[in-house]
Design brief:
Elements (H helix, E strand, L loop, with lengths): L7 E7 L7 H11 L4 E7 L5 H10 L4 E4 L13 E2 L1 H6 L4 E5 L2 E5 L2 H11 L8 E5 L3 H12 L4 E6 L2 H8 L7 E5 L3 H4 L5 E4 L24 E4 L8 H8 L3 E3 L2 H16 L6 H4 L3
Parallel strand pairs: 1-2, 1-3, 4-6, 7-8, 7-10, 8-9, 10-11, 11-12
Antiparallel strand pairs: 3-5, 5-6
Helix pairs in contact: 4-5, 4-9
Bound molecules: NADP nicotinamide-adenine-dinucleotide phosphate.
Length: 274
């Protein structure tokens, strides 16, 4: 990697960040494409965000990714928030333009990359989205932008679900209790899991049963570690097309680098660094 007096610093802020594969992806790309930049992960607590952003501004960093739990609270520290980030009030990418810090959201592009790269259909389809957290919010916007006929959002906590759906008034979206999924499963064309059920301490669990799904339904799990969750294993055994969240992760990274460098970055330029 070329490091000299003109090398630009990029990074990830969040907590925890040590497990992130973003440094591997972005440094791999920059090395291969002769971009003089270095990408590092910074574990930051909420109280340190203002000082960190101010320092990054002074040090003229090229760009930052923002991950949990700072995607919302970083917004007041920025000069401008654009596009999907403004709509969702959630920033996962910051670009420095002169002395200004601009917030973007590339998670929605990540979801679209995942869907496109697996040849899945969303337009006019009935989609079941499980969860109403940060990933679900991005997924919901992406699914609506792709022309979903209806998105049924299933989650446990009504208040959180209502708060999320409040942003999508007038859109073809319904909020439902997760426990009622079985009553709807036969009408679903695409099932998207945006809960952590299937990873970490919940690795042996599945958020819903796939038994009632139509044979043509596809199943997406935004989890990518493990590569195949119990949900995907069970769906695959029943013959459903399945996809994990890896291409979302790579898709949002590709889109972030495209924003920082102001160039088109092909997905394939990143896939080799997984
Ligand atoms: P989050 O903001 O904490 O939201 C989690 C959602 O899952 C909430 O709606 C929560 O329900 C629900 N949930 C949690 N535990 C549950 C359980 N035991 N049973 C049923 N529902 C449960 O998390 P997030 O950031 O959206 O992440 C969600 C998932 O997406 C994680 O698995 C994460 O790894 C994945 N993800 C993947 C990517 C990628 O690039 N592929 C990016 C971001 C996230 P309540 O509303 O009731 O609390």
């Amino acid at each position: 990697m070329r490091i000299d007096g003109r090398t630009t610093l990029y990074g990830l802020i969040g907590s925890p960040v040590a497990h992130s594969i973003s440094p591997q992806l972005h440094n791999g790309y920059m090395k291969t494409h002769d971009v003089s930049g270095v990408y590092l992960a910074f574990d930051l607590q909420a109280e340190d965000l203002p000082a960190a952003l101010s320092g990054f501004r002074t040090l003229q960093i090229g760009g930052l990714n923002v991950t949990s739990p700072h995607k919302e609270r970083v917004i007041p520290l920025l000069d401008e928030v654009r596009g999907d980030a403004a709509r969702l009030e959630s920033v996962n990418t910051i670009k420095r333009e002169g002395n200004r810090l601009i917030g973007f959201n590339t998670d929605t592009l990540g979801i679209k990359t995942l869907i496109a790269s697996h040849g899945l259909s969303v337009e006019n389809r009935t989609v079941a989205l499980l969860g109403s957290g940060g990933a679900a919010k991005s997924a919901l916007l992406a699914l609506l932008q792709l022309g979903a006929g209806e998105v049924r959002v299933f989650s446990r906590t009504r208040e959180k679900r209502d708060a999320m759906l409040g942003r999508f008034a007038g859109e073809p979206v319904r909020g439902l209790d997760l426990a009622t999924f079985g009553e709807h499963s036969g009408e679903i064309d695409l099932l998207v899991n945006a809960t952590p059920v299937g990873m970490g301490t919940l690795v042996d669990r599945t958020p819903v049963s796939v038994e009632g799904l139509k044979s043509t339904a596809a199943v997406v799990d935004l989890i990518y570690h493990p590569e195949r969750t119990r949900l995907l294993i069970e769906a695959s055994e029943r013959g459903h097309v399945v996809a994990n969240g890896l291409h979302m992760l790579v898709g949002q990274a590709v889109a972030a680098m495209g924003i920082w460098l102001d160039r088109e970055v092909p997905l394939t330029d990143y896939l080799e660094f997984l």
